[in-house]
Amino acid sequence: MDMASFYSSDIDSDVDIVKGEFELWKKKWQKVEPNQRPKTAVEALNEPDIKLLFPNVSKLLNIFGVLPVTTTTSEKSFSTSRRTKTMGEDRLTGLSMMSIHRSRDIDVAVIIDRLAGQKI
């Protein structure tokens, strides 16, 4: 799909102007060493004068910078909730978050200290 057409309602210019601006923006970066080019939309937005010289590209980069890349977290939470239907809400929430964020390290001693300090 053509992004200039898809986001035309968010851009103040004609689609052909946006396409031309994008071609100039690409040529600008072709002259730069690959290791000096921005790697993300956010890095590209930090370039000086991008809003002045390439206002439509800047708007598109702002849009791309906030679009989610995947929906994996929500998919994980749905599959996790099936396994924990019969539990209380607090326990369900806690276990779901632990399952979704498995890659985070948990310091058991800190958790025990927190639980020990709570009033029952």
Description:
It comes from Araneus ventricosus (Orbweaver spider). This is HAT C-terminal dimerisation domain-containing protein. The chain is mostly helical. Helix content is 62%, strand content 0%. It has a domain at 3-67. The chain is built from eight helices and no strands. The model has no long low-confidence stretch (mean pLDDT 80).
Brief overview:
The protein is mainly alpha-helical. The chain has helices at 3-6, 15-30, 41-45, 50-53, 55-66, 72-83, 89-100, 108-117. It has a domain at 3-67.
- Helical run tally: 8
User: In what range is the share of β-strand residues?
Assistant: under 5%
Computed structural class? mainly alpha
Shape: elongated
Q: Tell me the major beta sheet.
A: none
Uncertain runs are none
Average pLDDT, to the nearest integer? 80
Give me the strand/helix succession. Answer: HHHHHHHH
Could you estimate the helical fraction of the residues in percent?
55-70%
Quaternary structure state of the chains depicted: single chain
Head-to-tail CA distance between termini: 58 Å
Number of DSSP strand runs: 0
What does the radius of gyration come to? 23 Å
Pfam families: Dimer_Tnp_hAT
InterPro entries: HATC_C_dom, IFN-induced_PKR_regulator
Protein name: HAT C-terminal dimerisation domain-containing protein
Organism: Araneus ventricosus (Orbweaver spider)
Features:
elongated; protein dimerization activity; 120 residues; 62% helix; mainly alpha
How is this fold's topology laid out?
Layout: H1 3-6, H2 15-30, H3 41-45, H4 50-53, H5 55-66, H6 72-83, H7 89-100, H8 108-117
InterPro entries: HATC_C_dom (IPR008906), IFN-induced_PKR_regulator (IPR052958)
Protein name: HAT C-terminal dimerisation domain-containing protein
GO molecular function, one term: protein dimerization activity
